[in-house]
What does this fold into?
Amino acid sequence: MHFVHSSYSIQWLSQVPEGLECNKLNIYISKTSPFNVLRAYGKQFHTDFTRFLQLRYEELVHGGHMILVLPGRSEVDPTSDDCWSLWDLLTISLLELLEEGLVRESDINSFSLPFYLPCEDELMNIIQDDGSFSLDSMDAYEVNWDPHDTDYTNMKDLNIEPNHTHGKNTTKKNTAKVIRAITEPLLTYHFGSSIIDVLFKKYEKHVTKHLAINKTRQFTIVISLTKK
It folds into this structure.
């Protein structure tokens, strides 16, 4: 091949990292996660991304190009707000179902999302350590949680008029739909299908509260590579 393009897929891990048993009542990295949880996620991503580069090296011709687009985080700290807010709101929604007796604590403790949002330094270090590709460029931009929201000037949803096409009601529903599309197969497999509708109604509610304070955006990284 002469060209490879990957969009929003490299963040998915080949498996749930080992050693997450102590990450109680969390489904991903959070501010309450022990350090070994952060390290386990980072280690698994390092293994998977290195393997990805090695396999693409075998497929590409000499001088072939690769463009990678993936969600990440703007800070080195893996518990930074731009990394965990979406998933923390989903955790809160699951904990409400626990309080209502609709899910078991053991089921929440045994469920972990198999993806990782890296920072630019991590990606750069893995690429350099592997040595298969030259890094042409690495850029970052932010996208609204609502994929249909093209307003990139307003940062306070409280200032949006009620009849605005992308007001809070539309944004919360679109955001919840995106996260549901991403996670529903995993959640259904682990918790069963009966909780899904009520879970995402709760999730909409928490997204609304969050976005009423600040319009949070997803940090996205674009990488251009050339095979050596």
